Amino acid sequence: MKKSKSWIALFILSLTLVAVVAACGTTAGANDIGKTRTANDLEITVMHVETLNSKNDKKQLAKIDFEVLNVGSDEAGAGAGDFVVKTENGKKHSVYGMHANNFGDAIAAGKTLRGSGYYEVPAGKQDVTVIYQPAVGKADQEATWTITLPEK
After folding, report:
1. DSSP state of 74
2. Where are the domains of the chain?
3. In this predicted model, what pLDDT tens digit does every residue of 43-85 receive, in sequence order?
4. What are phi and psi for residue 144, nearest 5 degrees?
5. DSSP string of 84-103?
6. CATH hierarchy code of domain 35-149
């Protein structure tokens, strides 16, 4: 009987340990990186996020890598200017136009466009919402991702 109780205790301890280890592997912030959203016949995926230094010490550049697949039958356009980053204080940050590497182009039906958008936001780790808000076309269709910006 004593062996049986020790096996049960060991089993419960093992389950608890597995649950604790699994919980440590998740982040407290949100992470929609790698998730695909569809709007305006475009399947948009936030592929990667990193932070870079800004010329302003109180700010940082959020470099967000996108992959955009045109699932429609007509050519469509997409670019960094179609996205805004909404910070925790509710302020929306448009594309940082001073960065020459912002992506944007026409996408033929069935083709994919990959590129990065740069957005200047307050410095420090924070949860932000990336919002697809096309400047032209079907502006009523939006898509959002909640991500945690890493500290630079």
Report:
1. S
2. 35-149
3. 999 999 999 999 888 999 999 999 999 999 999 999 999 999 9
4. -135, 150
5. EEE-TTS-EE---TT-TTB-
6. 2.60.40.1240
